[in-house]
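re the bet — no i am not wrong, look at it urself. input seq straight from the record:
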Amino acid sequence: MSEETVIAAEEMLGESDWDDQDLLTLDEAATRLDAEIAACRQRLDDLRNTSHPPADDIGRTQRRLDALLSCRDAVAHGPTALAKP
């Protein structure tokens, strides 16, 4: 083969196995998010109940909780239009 020969991706990689991928389902994502949200809430409570909590830790943990809750809301709404054929 010369340097100028272009090989199609399908030839290099073989047939796509997209259907066989181990994808995270929405239910699994929701379950994992719920666990992370509970742990984050506990961490926030622990920080707030400490006599001198580092303000940076409280702010960072609150932002993480907010982000997790936002993700959980997105998962609860189900797949986007991109997921539908």
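see?? The radius of gyration is 22 Å. told u. also The chain has a mean pLDDT of 82. so pay up
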